[in-house]
Amino acid sequence: NRPQQIGRWPNVTDPNKGYLTYESHSGTNQITDEQLTGSIDWTGAEAVVRRTRWILDRLIIKSHQGTTLTFTTNVSYEFINGFGYFIQNDPRTLDQEGEWYYNPNNKRLLVYYPSDLNSQKTEANYVATLLKIWGQNYITVENLCLKGSLSLSLDVNNCKNIKISNVDILYAGENAVSITNCDYVTFENNLINHTNNNAFQCHQCNYATIRNNRIKNTALVAGMGLGGDGQYNANYMAGKNVLFEKNIVDSVGYIGVSYGGDSITLRNNVISNYCMTKDDGGGLYTWSDGTKTNYCRKLIGNIVFNAIGAPEGSGWTGVAAEGIYVDDRSANVDITGNTVFNCGNNGIVIHNSNHINIIDNTVYDNDNQLIFVHDDLAPSFPITNCTMNNNIFFARQINQMVAKFQAGNSSIDLLGNFDYNYYCRPFDDNLVIYASSNTTNPSIMDLTEWQTTCQKDSHSKKSPRTYLPYKVDNLIGPNLFTNGTFDKNISGWYCWANYNNCVAEFDNTDKLDSGSMKLHFDTLTGKPDAYMLAVGGIGSVTAGKKYILKFSHVGLKEGKTVEIILRKNGSPYNSLASQGYFLTSTTRKECEILFEVTTTEANARIDFRLDEGDSTVWLDNIDIREANVTKTSPDDYIRFAYNPTNSPVDIILHDNYIDVRNNKYSGKITLAPYSSIILLKDTASNTTPPTLISPVMERHKGSYKIFPNPASEYIMIDLNECAEKNIKIRILNGIGNPVLEKNLNNNATEKIDISSLPAGLYLININNEFYKFIKP
Prior knowledge:
11-stranded parallel β-sheet, 66 strands
């Protein structure tokens, strides 16, 4: 048996999953799509309209006039311009094998099938409700198959002491199971498969146990679920003293498990592959209107993964698919011992909620592992009184964030008590936390700055091992900046500030290498959003290619974040690659950043973004070139394993590993039921990030003179001021590899042949003092 797609236009196989786009709307019953024509009059058909990320409405088209569709009913949420829609429930949409249309007037079913349809077995639902139990007590239902309802397969209402077990509930036309206003219900060992809308709903039930069920393939066809809130879900429970445990929930259009009420326990469930038809939801989700405070909700030992996301037709880029999601105005939720991984957006979300305890969880390989966010959706419900201890927040990829704390108009101090957590990103363990509040300027921090600035996580730690994220095989072509060494001026660069108070100027005080570019603010506004951009054009970049940016820097303050943006040099100033960051230092540092370009652009630029409160920075030796890069595979260093079963599972290890707490493992480990582990290959940490010249941490005032500079054939080294007799020199290329070594005997002046070296920037290490020269 295979459910067939209802006929629709455009088809789900078309670009953007067949969503058209409406550019404008009028009121709550009309949309306008400038690309829609009147060649087909869609009056009487049904429009499936995505008007928020979490709602797909089904609206009958009252009239079609040119580019405008008017509907017979109004919607509760206003349409959002730029979102999507498609047409269904009309025979003119049938153009793919298996698509169907039912005519309610003549009760005829049309099926598009190019060959002989009689060779196929076609089944259709025709009974509204298959099994109804209302107002009964002490009823047991077992060993049945309920297949093919129109509206509802199993309807239980106002009952007590009901047991439903070993029942297969298949192909529900709308909802599969609804249990309402019942006490002492047991629903266990059942299968719910292929449901068009909601699979399992337990409304206002007390002392209910939902155990060891399989809920699969729920609401995966856009337009076949119902409109409005609360649709396309696998499970919903509300009541008191409800236990939901050891269930498998797989492949869901929207939310895996939604819960409300008091004394709710969700334990040892496996929820995967959800938010596939619409999003802004989670695997485990709760929300409140704020009129009542709920208590004693426990999420224990669940495994939640593969939040897919459904951006098509949403009008917004990116996905809004979360792992464990505690949404607006919720309270008193304990999140303990869960594993959350591979979610398209955040692993754990605390949104305008309070009194949340997050203990002993493992959150791994999500776009961002953890977020606390207070915003104007519930301005009178700040995040307060939370406890977060002994969790592992682990970013597998270098472009993933570890944690974000956005307190909005409240204070980070009020969020609660956080400690003994692990904030890990082993391929770049710096700048892993984003924080903002009414007292904290938006900033990306490392763990140390988070601890000192926000007074949280005093005993928390970073990754016990770090690894280089890539290796530069070779650089290609010249420096794309026309002036990156600032020997005489800063031509080719300028600055811009949102309060017109920035200065970018030439500095010849030998702050770095002779000349440098100094960035600072001539006046301070004191405004939290004040910032400046230092801008340098680089010409064209090509999608799919990699570019290495290198530079030297020093500042007046320690540990302040500077953002680096590769973007279009002109409106709309869109980013062409993921942003880079570095931390300022009062001693000279060398920095290297890899940009992987996603969009070809003939006129690109690099921006250094500096916040007003981060003081003065000097930059020098700015160089960006195309590069051949070998990226490190995280799988070569990280081993993640989880056990979604009721029994212990042995994991065979072929290398020596440690966990984030530095416990050692080899040979074999045993995972307890519903647990997980993250292992790091136990090699010596390479804590030196990829740098312009990796041995250089700061520049020394030298005892030697190098000339001429630039030089094409040879350089001269003046040793007159050196008292040492045996002198060793090493010449290093732009990626820190030695290209020439020589021992000198203090002969006053030494001539070094460099004619065989390719053009580029070089450093000379003379008895551990470093000097720059350029071969043009």
